[in-house]
Input
Amino acid sequence: MSDNVYKSIELTGSSEVSQEDAVRKAIAAAAKTVKHMRWFKVTGTRGHIENNEIAHWQVTVKIGFTLDN
Amino acid sequence: MSDNVYKSIELTGSSEVSQEDAVRKAIAAAAKTVKHMRWFKVTGTRGHIENNEIAHWQVTVKIGFTLDN
Amino acid sequence: MSDNVYKSIELTGSSEVSQEDAVRKAIAAAAKTVKHMRWFKVTGTRGHIENNEIAHWQVTVKIGFTLDN
Amino acid sequence: MSDNVYKSIELTGSSEVSQEDAVRKAIAAAAKTVKHMRWFKVTGTRGHIENNEIAHWQVTVKIGFTLDN
Amino acid sequence: MSDNVYKSIELTGSSEVSQEDAVRKAIAAAAKTVKHMRWFKVTGTRGHIENNEIAHWQVTVKIGFTLDN
Amino acid sequence: MSDNVYKSIELTGSSEVSQEDAVRKAIAAAAKTVKHMRWFKVTGTRGHIENNEIAHWQVTVKIGFTLDN
Amino acid sequence: MSDNVYKSIELTGSSEVSQEDAVRKAIAAAAKTVKHMRWFKVTGTRGHIENNEIAHWQVTVKIGFTLDN
Amino acid sequence: MSDNVYKSIELTGSSEVSQEDAVRKAIAAAAKTVKHMRWFKVTGTRGHIENNEIAHWQVTVKIGFTLDN
Amino acid sequence: MSDNVYKSIELTGSSEVSQEDAVRKAIAAAAKTVKHMRWFKVTGTRGHIENNEIAHWQVTVKIGFTLDN
Amino acid sequence: MSDNVYKSIELTGSSEVSQEDAVRKAIAAAAKTVKHMRWFKVTGTRGHIENNEIAHWQVTVKIGFTLDN
Amino acid sequence: MSDNVYKSIELTGSSEVSQEDAVRKAIAAAAKTVKHMRWFKVTGTRGHIENNEIAHWQVTVKIGFTLDN
Amino acid sequence: MSDNVYKSIELTGSSEVSQEDAVRKAIAAAAKTVKHMRWFKVTGTRGHIENNEIAHWQVTVKIGFTLDN
Output
C-alpha cells in the first residue's frame, strides 16, 4: 500500500435528479479512460435554473486513481 | 449572451427531507420577487438536530439572475 | 438561551446510499456519548470507488451540543 | 421552523467607539428596510487611521432575515 | 465619514474585450437602481470559450454603496 | 517546553454584552473539565437579532491545553 | 445539455503584454490536444520582474471541456 | 488620490483589556517608524490563558500607509 | 468498512528535530487515551526561535479514529 | 540559485487606466528602496467608483526580491 | 522564457520515511509519462496510522511542466 | 509579556536537502537585519525540478519578532 502513487483529475457531472447521481455520472465518464479509481472528493456544487425550477445539478469532483507501477 | 449582467443573491432553504429539497425551497421563495434566474451555487450545508435526529437541513445558495436591459 | 455554551466535535459518517444517510450515521454514533446535540455543519464530502462504482459516501460534520450548566 | 427561508445581505457599519458599536449601526441601518432579522455573522473587520489613531472601526456583517411566506 | 453604513451587492459583468470592460458593464448595470456607489472588489474571473477562442470575459464584483441616512 | 503536546477543542460562548465576554464564558465553561489551558484562537463571530437589536453575541474559539505527561 | 460531463485541466500562460493575452496563450496551447473547450476560470496571477520592469505576466487558468459521449 | 501607492505591514498587538486596545497598541508601536498610516485590517485574534482566565488578547493587523512620492 | 464512523481530534506536537518527529510525538500522546487511530492530516506548521535558531517545531494534526460499534 | 533567500513585501498600486498599470506603479514605487526584485503575485483587486464610473483601480501585489548575501 | 505554457497535474506520493521522500516518489512516478517538469507545490500532507505508529506519509503535490511548442 | 508588539515578515528559504533546512536558511538570512525573533509559521512549500529530480526546496515562512520598546 505504501508504494502507491495516486493521480487526481477533476470532472463535473450533471444530473436532473440529485447530487449523488451527478457524481455517479462523472465517475462513469472517467471510467472510459482511467483505471484503478479509488476515491473522490466533492469540490463544488452548482446547478442551472429554468422556469424557476432546478434544470440539473452540476457536481465537481476530484477523482484519485493509482498509477500502474 | 455576452451583454448579460448577472446579479447574485444569497438564500438559505430548509427541508426535513433532503439537501436537494432545501435548495428547491430556496429557489421557490426567490421566484416570488426575482425573474430570469439562471444558476445557483451551494455555499454551505448545515442543519438542526432534535432528539438525536436531523430535524431539518439548511442549505445556503447563491442564486444568479440576469438583469433586465 | 444567551447563557448557552456549545462544544463542537467532528465526525465522519459513511453510507452506501446517500450523503444524507452518511450524516445520519455520524449523528447516531455521536448520540452514544454526547447529549443535547443542537446543530451540524457539513465540512467535507468524499467517498470510495470500487469497480468504477461509488462504494460508499463519507461525509464529515461538525456537531454542536450544549454543555450542561 | 423548518419551512423558513432566510435571505442574507451584507452591510458594513462604522463606529468611532468599538467593533460592537459598528455592528449595531449596521443592524440599525438595515432595520429601515428589512423586517424579521434573525442573525448576523462578522465577515471582516477594518478601520481608518488618522494622526496615528483609530479614526473609526468598519465591521462587515452578513445579516439573515426570514422571508414572508 | 464615520457614520456611513455601506451595503454591498454582487454582480457579474460580461465583455468580449477585457476584464476592465466587464467590470465597467457590471457597474453601469448597477447604476440603474443603486445610488452612491463608492467601491468595488473583484471576487472572481471566468469566461466562455468558443472555437478555441475567448468568447467573453465574466468578472464578478462586490459593489459597495452608502445607504441614505 | 519543547516536549509539550497540546490538544485543542472548539467551543462557542454567548454574551449579551460583548465579544470579549462571550470568549470569557467559553473559557469558563471549558475550565470545568479541562486543565492546563494555554491559548485560544477566535474562529468565528456571529450573533442573534431580536426586535432589531443584538440579543447576544456568539464567539467560537479553539482552546489549546497541554496534555499531562 | 444536462448529460454533459466536463473535465477541467490547469494551465499557466505567459505574456509580455497583458493578463488577457496570457490567458489566450494558455487556451491556444490547450487547443493542440483538447477539443470542445467551454469555459475557463482564473485561479492565480503572477509575473516576473527584470530590471524593475514587468518582464511577463503568468496567469493560471482552469479550462473545462466536455468529454465525448 | 489615484497616484498613491500603499505599503502594508503586519503587526500583532497585545492587551489585557480588549481587542480594540490590542489594535491600538499595534498602531502606536508602528507609529514610531512609519508615517502616513491610513487603514488597518484585522487578520487574526488569539490570546493567552493563565489560571483559567484570559491573560491577554493578541490581535494581528495589516496596516497600510502611503509611500512618500 | 462502509459502516465505520470516524471521530477526529486536533493535537499539536513539538520536536527539536524535525516536522516528522513532531507529528510522531502528537500521535504518541494521543495513543494514551484514544484507540483505533487510522489517519492524520497536517493542518499547520509553526515553531519557536531562540538565539536565531529553531528551538523546536510545532506541527498541528487532525487525527481520525474509528468509534467502537 | 538554490542558496537564494527571498523576502516578500506587499504593496497596493493605483491607476485610472488598467489593472496592469496599477501593478506597474506598485513595482515602480518599490524600486525606490528595494533591489533585486524577481517576481510578483496579485493578492487582491479593488477600486473606487465616482459618479458611476471607475475612478481608479487598486491592485495589491506581493513582491519578492533576493536578499544580498 | 515568456512564451512558455505550463500544465500542472496533481499527484500524491507515499513514503514510510519522510515527507520529502513522498514528494520524490510522486515526481518519479510522473516522470514515466511527463517531460520537462519544472516545479512542484505541496497542497496537502496526510498519512496512515497503524498500531499507534505512522505507517506512511502521503504528500499531495501539483507538478508543473512546460508544453512542447 | 502582555505589552509586546510583534512584527512579522515573510521570507522564502531554499535548500537542496530538506524542508527543515530551507526554513533554517530563511531564519539565518533574517538574523542579519532583525533582532528578537520569536516564532515562525510555514505558509507555503514549493520546489524546483531538474532532470526529474528535486533540485531544491523553497519554503515560505512568516517570522515574528518583538519590537524594541
